[in-house]
Structures are given as structure tokens and as C-alpha cells.
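Worked example (supplementary).
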Amino acid sequence: MLKGKAFKFGDDISTDHIIPGKYAYLRSNLPELAKHVMEDADPLFASRVKPGDFIVGGNNFGLGSSREHAPLVIKMAGVKAILAKSVARIFFRNAINLGLPILICNTDDIANGDQLEIELEAGIIRNKTNGKVLTFGKIPDVMLKILDEGGLLPYIEKHGDIKL
Amino acid sequence: MGKTISELILSAKSGSDVRAGDIVVAQVDLAFVQDTTGPLTVRQFRAAKFKKPAETLKAALFLDHAAPSQSREMSNDHILLREFAAQTGAFLSEVGDGVCHQIVAESFAKPGDLIVGTDSHTVTAGGLGAFACGMGSSDVAIALGLGRTWFRVPETFLIELKGKFSKGVNAKDLILYLIGKIGADGATYKALEFGGSGVANVTMPQRLTVSNMAVEAGAKVGIFPADEVTMRFLTEQGRADHYMPVQADDDAVYEKTITIKLGELEPMVAKPHTVDNVVPVKEVAGTKVQQVSIGTCTNGRLEDLKIAAKILKGQYRNLKTRLIIAPASRDILMAATEAGYIETFLEAGGVILPPGCGSCLGLHQGVLGDGESCFSTANRNFKGRMGSPEAFVYLGSPATAAATAIKGEITDPREFL
Ligand code: SF4
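After joint prediction of all chains, the assembly is encoded as:
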């Protein structure tokens, strides 16, 4: 079971909010890059997030660039899952490829700072702060297989190919 | 039951009979990276213990986002990519050659191709009738190594075009109008397929502009049929042998159809900070801007520069507004020089940047300061996109950009026509 605090954001959190293009020069220096995670959405996020916490967005989370560095810096911050009403296509694939779960649910029932407990297998999110129980949509099979191996690279290492 | 263009291409490339919703493993024709996402691709490629890209595909690396490099770190990333190209025989596009998507369109993409790139605007090649989509570094690393990857066959929205653009209105206004109508997530996971009798009136540079921004509606691809316009373009590029007609079946099944009469469109603008925040230019006319940027993979082609030059000819930029022009490729810069457009821009008080991404991603060459506004022909206006998160980016056509540079405030280009 995953347990942590919710960091709540609004709709349309773009990859530029998550890791602005102006830091492209830091992309081969991941520890430095990671210091700027979510900077243009919440400049204090990097200093406040704790390993185990969750990012909670609204609609169309992760829209924009194909930069895999966006889910990568989120993962490096110790975030264990991203919850959103909907997620942009490339970001979704990138996060799963890095072994970072994305859970599609009605995030209106989660406020900033709420304590969440998530049972990934059971598909349940318990909001310990307001007592609500949420369910999330099924992750597509092929992505689940990749996620189960911990990401695309470990998947390929194990299977040597893409096996549907 | 007939197939959409996406279903046809993914069927051909997977050697099976597929429909929207199916998951397939398909052969990739071209896999490419650029300089801000390429280094991670190379590291993932090596971590997956691949030695060389699969021989069945073309592999290409582009140094375009930081070109020339603005920092030691980016220069080191360029070194990494150059070394990878030298070791593996992958094609390398050097600093100053141009933006990846433009060079892919000029030199590589073919109708019916399956293309992946570590850049979300890989969709641009859909203008040529290719199924081209952006992916992350790990996905492209695996595609490079295996020569194939997995795809979910998308459902398709048919965008049926009718008629012709009226004066002062162009492809950018069309795609902004469409994104404004369906929303920045209106086509998430879907294919946008452009069709209808009006398609024949849309030139290849215009198609590339439209396909380029399909991703701003969340789409996986933005695809045009390959027709006579495509054949003419490929012939001009010396690639007539790369032509193959691509058309959806007459009885293809679409999730929905949106009809747009090109002649009824007017100049449009996307206001800060989302691309679907679209209004007609007249609603924001008079908004002061400190910078006008013309170029990028969206609107840095010769036809775009011609439109801007025609408006700027004999004019001077507003003294409080900087004018920055970045041609999308070396070939375009050379042709624009020969046609006199570059001289016009210089005489109008403009700055010419080397072919490449220029100021588009806020890395260098036109970064905005706090409180500044920019009118750009690019494809994104997210908060922080061009530097300061306190800056404002408005998106529109090259014609609107040129008129705006002259007046120093957002201006309907039809005033100058
Ligand atoms: S011009 Fe802009 S949008 Fe196009 S590839 Fe470069 S940074 Fe991306």
C-alpha cells in the first residue's frame, strides 16, 4: 500500500510547469535538474515534497513536450503516483515507461495536503482526511505489463522484445 | 468496412488487419531525436544494451534546440550525440541546418511511413501522409534498437475542409480555430485526419503547420492524405520517387467529423497560457507586445517568411517591439535570402537567428523577461515556455505577427493587405 500526502494542482499542468525548457541544459545533470521539479506551478514544491507523496492534477496533466525528464524529475522527488482526471498521451507513456503509476480518477475529492492511501492492485484510493474512497480506471494491459516489470527498460531486459 | 489513414498505415506496418482500439507492434521507418531529449535516448539505448540502431530503419539526430549551443552543458550533450552518430552511422544534422521537423519533411518523411521522434511535434510529418508521433526517450531508444514498437491504433476525427482561405487568413488560423473549438485535450489519443474537397487548396507548408499543432489538441497524429500537392512537394525536394498516394477508404469509419469552411475563417490568436484559449484577432487587437518571434517548426517556412516579408516591406518595426526571425532550415534561409525577404526583415529592424528552434523554448535567443509579452508564430504559450513564468505569449500567424511588429500591438493583418 502507498501512503502519502497529496500535492494538488489544477488543470493543464504542462511539461513546462513540471520542468521548464529553460533548464534543458541541465538534462544530463539529473540531480541539479530535479531541484526545479514543478517550479513553474509551485516554486516551493521541491522543498516540501517527501518521498511517498502524490501529485494530484486535474484535466490533461502533462500536456506539451515529449520530454521524459518531466516524469523523471517527479519520480526522483520520491512521488509514488500521479493522480489526475485525464493525462496527455506522451506523458502517460513516459511515466509508465519509468515505472511511475498514473491513476485516472475524480480528483475533485482530493484537496491539497490530504493524506491518501492507495491500493494499486485493488484499484482503491482512500482519502484519510475526508474519509472518501475513490476508484481509478484500469491501466491498459500493455502498460500494466510494462509497469509490473518496473518500466520499459527492465521489461525489455527481461523479455528481449515487446510481447503483447 | 473501410479504414482511416491511420488504420491503413498501422495495418501495413504491423502486417495485420487492424482497427481503432487494437494494440499492435509495428515496423518503424524513421526514428529520430533532438538535442534536448537525445542524450537521455542515447543513455537508455545503451542501458538496454543495444549497440546499433536496427538496420530496418533510418536513425537521425538533430542539433537544433540549442543551436549554436548557449552553454557548456548543452555543448557536452552535442558532443555525446555527435559521437553516437559517428559510432553508429546514424544521420547527424548539425547546428545551423535547421529544426528537426522541417528537415524530416524536406529530406526523410514519405507518405505511408511510420515515424517516431523524441519531440512532441514529430506529428509535423503527418502533412506528408506519414503516421508520425512523438514519444519519450525510452520509447524511442527501444524503437531505435528493435526497429519496431507498440502502438494503440487511434480512433480518428475527420476534419473535413471546404473551400479556400480568404486573404490574410492562413493555416495557422485554421489550426488555432480547430484547437479552440475542440480544446487542448479534445483529441487526446485520437488521430486528426484532414480531408474534404478543400484539402487540395492547402499547400504543403500549410499542411505541415496544421499537422504540427495537432498535438496541441492532444492528438497522436495529424495526418493529411498524400495527393498531387504531396507529389509536387516531393518532386521539388528531388524525392519524386518517395511519392505514394495515401487516401482513406471511402467507407472509413470516423469517431466524428468536423467540417470547416476555410473561406469563413478569420485571423485567430491563442492567448496566454493555453493553446486552446483562442479568440479572433480583433478581440485582442491593441494588446502591446515587446517581442515578435517569427519562425519555428510551426511557421518558419519560406511561404511563412514570404507572407511576413510582404507586410514588412518598406515598414519599420515599432520602436518598443523587438522583431526576431528564425528560418526553419538552412535551405529556407538561403531561399529567403535569394528572394530578398531577409533584406526586408533587416531593413524593418529585425534580427535574423540561425535556422533552428530559436526563442521557442525559452532556452536562449529571445528569452522573455518578467511582465513582457511576445507575439509568436510558434505552437505553445504555456506559462514559462519562453523564459519568465511572469511573461505572456500570444500565438498567431506570420501575417498577424508581421502586422503586430509594425504597430507594436496585436494587429489584424488585413489592415496591411
Ligand atoms: S521550434 Fe519550438 S516547438 Fe518546434 S521543435 Fe523547436 S522547440 Fe519544439
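Two points are worth noting when inspecting this output. Chain A has a mean pLDDT of 96. The domain at 2-159 of chain A is CATH 3.20.19.10 (Aconitase; domain 4).
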